[in-house]
Request: fold
Amino acid sequence: MPSRKFKIPSRSEVMRNSLRGSIFMLVVAVGMILYATTSLRRDRPSLHWPIVPGVMMQVELHHHPRLHDYVQATYSYIVNGTRYVSHQIRLWNPDLSRDYDAKPFAEAHPANSSIDVYYDPRNPENAVLIPGADESGCKALIRGGSIGGFLVILLVIWHRKDFIRLFAQRRDDAAKMRGSAPARKIKPLKSDISSQSFLSYEPARKRKLNCFPDKECLLEVLGHKGDKLQDWEPDDRVVDTSGHVYRLVYRPQNKWYDIEPTDETWDYAKLLELAIEDAQTIKKDTKAMRDRVDLATDAEKITVIMQCVDDPPAAARWVMIGFFLFLILFALAVFFGTAFLSVWLLNRF
Reply:
């Protein structure tokens, strides 16, 4: 039996999925609290509705061994000379489905028996036989939503640096793709640029340079671990930190690209010129880039150039940090505001 290949997600993919999951769970937690508080406010007033005598016209207990018991009830009552017919037993559970009270209720209220009917004075057609809200269920939702939301916020705060790095990289990727045709997707970097990194040169693009922290990341973009993220042109090249140049060769049978060494070697001066040209398109500080390269040793200059290319503009980085802090504060405000409202409602009634 042939073995199956499982793709191991990169750290950036894990963090991106974690962020989506955190947002989803926070929305679910807030939704649970809002649903429970809304249900309590809607159903609790029925405890104070006026009562009129009624007659149980029909009641049937239905049972399914794999599902649940439920009651089909029909009763009539008169309000201000008008006769009404209803089937609703509870506001939040009209037929007592999945309720331990289903069988006792059917036995205690046979057909033609007298019953007390609670009706809404503003809408007499809305009536119940058992008033009140699902106190235990709603309180459990409020507690669960509060605990879940608090844990999600703690998780986001704990991994805030990873999320900030992810936002910054996505913003930088968007800047790299701005003005290019056709638009393309660039895989977010998994780690900082080091002596094992690579730099792609794409002369047909507005942004001509893109960094990859290691060969594994480069091969992932080229399609060795899934679908390739873009089609490369014949003039595109890849350069390592030693200045060796590679061409990109497409393998149709595998649907990926390989890197093939050429006889070329680029020095840091050529790469610096290309990096400065790229930096000017997104308004980076080119003087600071030159200074960093000048201070580096000859063996480190290409690596420093790659770090400069990979580093997003300072202004954009602060914008992303500010935006992320805003999201955290907004989530805290929504969470604690909802929790405060739920506690106030629980204490009031």
Q: What stands out?
A: The chain has three domains: 11-39+137-158+319-348, 50-130, 189-312. Residues 11-39+137-158+319-348 form one domain.
